[in-house]
Every structure is written in C-alpha cells, then in structure tokens.
Amino acid sequence: MSAGSLWDVAVIGGGAMGAAAADALAARGRRVVLLERQDAPGHGIGSSHGDGRIVRACYPEPFYVAMAQQAMAMWRALDDDGTLLAHSGGLDLGEADGTALADLRAALDDAGLRYAWLDAEATQRRWPHLRLPDDSAAIHQPDTMVVRAGAAVARWWSRIETSPHGAVRRCAAATEITVDARSVRIRLDDGDEIRASALVIAAGSWSRALLAQLGVDLALRVTREHIAYFPVRDDAPAAARRIDPSALPTVIDHHGVVDARHFYALPQIDVPGVKAAWHHDGVVLDGAGAAPNGADAACDPRDAPAFERARLAPIQRWLRARWPGLDDTPIEATTCLYTSSIDHHFVIDRVPGVPRPVAFAAGFSGHGFKFAPLIGALLAALSLDEAPPADPTPFALARFAADAPAVAPRVSA
Question: Given this model, what pLDDT does residue 355 score?
Fold first, then answer.
C-alpha cells in the first residue's frame, strides 16, 4: 500500500458497522481500505465484542421493524455455515394493559409479523425459568435470534482480507481528516497518509472527534455499561435448568421502564450462564464523546471496582424478582461501550458542505448491532451515491436542527 495510491473508499472503524460497510463495498468490486486502531476483531475496547447480541424485529417504530426484517435476511445470508446465529425466539414482558406491549403489538400487526400473546400464567408454564406478576403478559416473537457478535465481526474482517477486489484492513488510527475536490486525506497515527475518493466514518465512541474535524458537532454520550452472566441454582427444577437458545428465549422486561432503561437477558451462548444487564445504566466516560483507550474490559465481578459492583446490584434485584432458578452471584462480568444520541435513534447521513462523499453512522445507543449488515450496505450506498437499501430519513442529521421537532426516546435494546 503506497501513500500515493488512491482508494475508492476508506472506512474508519472496524467494529460491526464499519466492517459491514467495508464488506459491502468490497462486494461491489470497490477498492476499499478499512482502518481500525485495534489488531483483533471483536476486541474489548468498543461496542462490537462479546458472545451474543439480540436480533429482533419487535420494535414500536415501524421503520425499525422494516429494517430489522431486512437485516435478519442479511444475517442469515452471512451465516452460511450455521455458526453465527442461534434461533431462540424472543419475549417482551410488561403490564398486560400497559402501553409498551400495546405499541409493540400494533407495530407487529402492521408489519404482518407472527407472534403470540401470553398471559403471566401461560408464560411461566412454557418457560418455568421466569416469574411474572399476575397482571403481566408477554409477546413471544419466534423469529428473534442471537448473533455471536465477535465472531460476526471476525467474519467480515476475513471476507475483506480475502476479497479479490483489492480490499485491505490496516491496523492504524485516523488522527486527521481533510477533504478537497480531488480526494479525502486521512492522516494515521503512524505518520502515513491514506487518500480515497470517498470516506465512511463508523468509529463508535471516537466518531464525534473525527466528525468535528469536518464541521459536524454531533452530541454523543459515551457510557460504560455493565453485563453479567448468572448460573443456574443447584436447587432449580429440572425444567428451568436448560438455558440454551433451544429452551430459553431472549427476554426484554418493560415493567417500570423509565427513560428507556430496562432489563434484558439472553440465553447461554458461549459464556456459561444467562447474560443479563440493565439497559442505559452505565457510567459516563467522557462528556466530549471520546472513549479512552482501555475503557472496556472483562472482569471477575468479585474484583470489580465499587462503582461497578453497585451497578450489578439492580441486575441482581431483577434476577431475584424475575428468575427464581438463577443464582444471583455472577460467574463473569464484562463491560460494553454505548455511544448514544440525544433521542436514542441512530445518526446516519452524509457530511454536509464537503466536496467528496463522506458518509457516517454514529449514536447507536445500545441497540444498533442487530442492524449491522443493513447499515453497512446503507453506508456503502451513501458513499457511492447509490440508492439506499433502506430509508435513512429517520436518522438524518437535520433532525437536530434548532427548528426541528423533538423526537422522544423509545425503549430499545
């Protein structure tokens, strides 16, 4: 790779969104260079690592439902050897007469998607792992899946590195971006310079600083979220002891949700135990939107700092209330970065006022991974001036203009 060569597209960020975008560009026969500061896919310093992420279409917003269906088909195509996806089905729990489940039902009905409505007794009879209040209900959506997050990113990296179209992955961090009529220039931390006809920025928690160089002041809030894995109790009944995806669906609990904070759980994928977390309860890392190196790390919960142990306590209380068959002492804990927009909806757009195409995606707010194949294709289209595979209008930068109507955050995971 010579400093003077001109790439068709450079992609900054080798997590799920950037890797999917680079893969989509390579599949179009474009010469693409993927720039990622870490040398391993699914590394722990970001948002795209770990054993499992929920892939679901159960959203109250119709545009997310439609996008999820597209993304699910793309996930199945990517999983050509059957090792990336676990078909678990998914449960949304809540008050039977509450607005959360009513909104989900309305969106699923409008989309013509299949689901079952179960009262508390029927839910507990089918999944004795759970305990629900009598006035509760559940939506079971059987198409919900779990994707192996780190393995998915590794697959995109492998596809990029074996592409016949001149795609390359480079272990380097972008430090400076300039755009003129002829090219985009990216200065790297090793002193090298990359030139490309177009650029995609999908750098997660590092996106704000990069976009600021191009005149985009995007308010992003970076938090370190806490996740723990809980084992089955020794005295749990036999019917509640199986916690693999064939016996246990993903669970999102809408009881008592405030400010989009809710509990969720995944069946056992690779790490022993049920994965559980409290959505949007993380520690704010940097008000400027930049994530410090080393912000993300696996840990033994017994050795976690006091503030991390404190954030395990609400998850443990939820387990005691909702999961009678689980031991509330975690066997493993880890963290994950959320980079959230003001309204918890994605920000996907072109940088305005620059003479070369610069597409970007940021602010996935803890619920973007499920859409990664589609967002990668969308970023590829935006960088190439192609018709987008999904409508980017709900994610436009213009919604944050002073005269734009406010959009209330919705519950998502």
Answer: 97
Mean pLDDT of the chain: 90
Looking at the DSSP assignment, which residues form a beta bridge with residue 334?
Answer: 227
Residue of 91, 74, 79, 66 whose CA lies nearest to 142: 91
- pLDDT, position 306: 53
User: What would the pLDDT profile of 5-14 be if each residue is shown by its tens digit?
Assistant: 899 999 999 9
Tokens 């961090």 belong to 173
Partners of 141 in the β-ladder: 90
Q: Are 6 and 197 in contact (CB under 8 A)?
A: yes
Q: How far apart are CA 199 and CA 185, in angstroms?
A: 9
Q: Give pLDDT tens digits for 170-193.
A: 999 999 999 999 999 999 999 999
CA distances from 5 to 31, 173, 355 (A): 11, 18, 19
**Residue 341 confidence (pLDDT):** 95
How far apart (Å, rounded) are the C-alpha atoms in residues 254 and 406? 23
DSSP category for residue 39: S
Q: 205 versus 403: which is more confidently predicted?
A: 205
Copy the structure tokens of residue 242: 């199986």
Structural contact between residues 397 and 216, judged by C-beta atoms closer than 8 angstroms: yes
- Rounded to a whole number of angstroms, the distance between the first and last alpha carbons of the chain is 40
**In this structure, what token pair is assigned to residue 398?**
């213009």
Phi, psi of 156 (to 5 degrees): -60, -45
Measure the CA–CA gap between 197 and 383, rounded to whole angstroms.
9
High-pLDDT (> 90) share of the chain, %: 77
> Residue 297: what pLDDT?
40
Q: Tell me the one-letter amino acid at 58.
A: C
According to DSSP, residue 385 is labeled: T
- What are the Cα distances from residue 69, in Å, to 191, 301, 345, 371, 375? 43, 36, 18, 9, 13
Neighbours of 182 (CB within 10 A): 11
Helix (H) or strand (E) holding 361: strand 358-362
Q: What is the DSSP letter of 406?
A: P
For residue 191, what are the contacts with CB-CB under 8 A and spacing of at least 6? none
CA atoms within 13 A on the CB side of 122: 11
| C-alpha pair distances (Å), 169 with each of 116, 183, 378 | 44, 20, 20
